[in-house]
Amino acid sequence: MKDMLIGIDIGGGGLKTMIVSLKGDVMGSASFDLHTHSPHAGWSEQDPADWWRGVCETVPRALAEAGVNNDRIAAVAFSAGAHTPVLEDAEGRVIRPAILWSDARSGAEARELQERYGDEILELACNRPAATWTQPQLLWLARHEPEALARTRRLYVAKDWLRSRLTGTWETDATEAVGTLLYDGRRGQWSDRLCEMIGFDPLLLPPIVEPTSVVGTVTSQAASQCGLAAGTPVVCGSSDTSVEAYGAGATTAKRGTVKLATAATVSIVDTEPRPHPSVINYPFVVPGYWYTIGATNSCASAHRWLRDCFYADSALSGSQAFELMDLHAAEVDAGAKGLLFHPYMQGERTPHWDPLLRADFIGLTFAHQPRHLVRALYEGIAFSLRDVLDALRSQGLDMSEARIIGGGSRSAVWRQIVADVLGISIALPRVTDASFGAALIAGVGIGVFPDEAAAVEQTVSVIARHEPDLSKQNLYNDLHGIYKDAAKQLFEVNHRLSAIGNR
Q1: Which of 4, 203, 297, 357 could be 344's S-S partner, Cβ–Cβ 3.0 to 4.6 Å?
Q2: How far is Cα 59 from Cα 52, in angstroms, rounded to an integer?
């Protein structure tokens, strides 16, 4: 009896495999830590071979935790952070490490593309050039590592390369294609014009399929390495934010999602793209919809940094240290005694789109302790998300409730702060992992659910709600105003500091 689905997600800090029943119960899961390499300031790279090792380690452990044999797996699907390019040569060998969305090295190339073709790129690709996208990254490679591009015969993005280890096939979905900034989002096809701008051969780009398309089955060779049964159907999947929003229950227009993960995001589902320099547009996994998204680059990554700086010397494990930080944040009153945090640890995306911005704590006094820094970090990321929501609202998008997902959503304190700062109701789904949404996509792909909406209706539920505390609204409104003013005053300072740091 094939009554289980598997979703596999490549996150910023780890890979996760989840086994889900057809009722939406998580039967087993396992995680594998991933190391991000930063050989130079602003660089963020991962070795794709680590992703495959993660699959080979986590699939058997998840099966063991679920207490099921691999012959009960009906299908598997994948997700990952969007538009992370993997280049292969003619022999199928990976040419260089994968450049992540958080990598800032192509900032100069992005600015050049914006100056020369900005309006045209926005019209075709539905997004503005920035260092996060594949197009500027490929232009950087053309200038600094031309031999790598000369050897390239196939371009994958992360989840598609990993999936190809199971099937040996080469394809992607429209969400990932838009993320490369080489795809005509309105016409639904690769754009010769966008490729021409950087001198890239469009024949190196994969065929486009639906996220729910069955693209192949697990080969015998792959089965012998990773523990899945040969012949198991493999479904395309999509980018992590798309499947997370879907798996959280945001399946129709005007549904919103807040994500507290390596990066933090706000997204709203709509029936069409909303091209604008301040926001990001992607096709959604549910046919006929798009989602518009804004992001702050550093969320859980900044949270982890604070733990390592101020809580690493305790006898607590990593997870216990996070729990202590959460308790400390709850002990501190709103506003953290006048302490503000700008979470620009890796530059910033929405609404500034500036890779040279830097993080800061403003307002430190001798009265502040590490617990105040934790509270200020929670609030600072929430303020950055309010900047994102304001950018979405300026495009005519809004929501009164958002589903909250990502690792940070486990904190009830942080969820309430987000509700208070954004001024909206926050709902926590029973399962918030991207791997869960990927598993549902696998089920839709093989027909165990009649469509995407039915899969969510049968499996997704809300376990907690947070309403905004009106008594804190004036304080947070004042603090957010100071937060924005201080950020603007420090832009030039950040640029000067970045110039010194990059010498």
Answers
A1: 357
A2: 11
pLDDT score recorded for residue 503: 76
Q: Are 209 and 188 in contact (CB under 8 A)?
A: no
**Alpha carbons 6 and 29: distance in angstroms, whole number:** 9
Angle among Cα 286, 103, 386 to the nearest 5 degrees reads 60
The total of structural domains in the chain comes to 1
Residue pair 459/42 in contact by the 8 Å Cβ criterion? no
Domain hosting residue 179, numbered range: 4-247
Half-sphere exposure in the Cβ direction for 423 (13 Å, CA): 13
Report how many helices (DSSP H) and strands (DSSP E) the chain contains, helices first.
Answer: 16, 23
Q: Which helix (H) or strand (E) holds 237?
A: strand 233-239
Say if residues 162 and 100 touch (Cβ distance below 8 Å). no
Bridge pairing between strands 208-209 and 172-173: parallel
Query: Which residue is listed with tokens 């199928």?
Result: 92
Residue at 104 is within a domain: yes
Residue 246 CA, distance from chain mean position: 13
State the pLDDT at residue 314.
64
Q: What is the mean pLDDT of residues 207-225?
A: 98
Q: How many CB atoms lie within 10 A of CB 417?
A: 24
Q: What share of the chain has pLDDT > 70, as a percent? A: 100
Angle at 253 between CA 184 and CA 410, to 5 degrees: 100
Quick one: which H or E segment has residue 464? strand 462-466
Closest by Cα among 145, 255, 160 to 205: 160
Residue 136 near residue 199 (C-beta atoms within 8 A): no
Residue 340's H or E segment, with its range, is strand 340-342
Angle between the 240-248 and 452-459 helix axes, to the nearest 10 degrees?
60
Contact of 328 with 312, CB cutoff 8 Å = no
Q: Which residues neighbour 203 within 8 Å (Cβ) at sequence distance 6 or greater?
A: none
pLDDT band at 90, cuts 50/70/90?
Answer: very high
Q: Which residues of 176-209 are buried (b: 16+ CB within 10 A; e: fewer)?
A: bbbbbbbbbbeeeebbeebbebbebebebbbebb
Q: What is the CATH number of the domain that holds 66?
A: 3.30.420.40
- Comparing CA positions, the residue from 222, 221, 291, 230 lying closest to residue 437 is 291
What is the C-alpha to C-alpha distance for residues 207 and 392, in angstroms, rounded to an integer? Answer: 31
Distance of CA 404 to the CA centre of its chain: 13
Query: Strands 425-429, 462-466: parallel, antiparallel or unpaired by DSSP?
Result: antiparallel
Burial of 365 (0-12, 13-18, 19+ CB in 10 A): exposed
User: Strand, coil or helix: what is 360?
Assistant: strand
The enclosing H or E element of 292 equals: strand 290-296
The reply to whether 103 falls in a domain is: yes
In this structure, is residue 412 part of a structural domain?
Answer: no
Instruction: Give the pTM.
Output: 0.88
Would 280 be classed as within a structural domain?
A: no
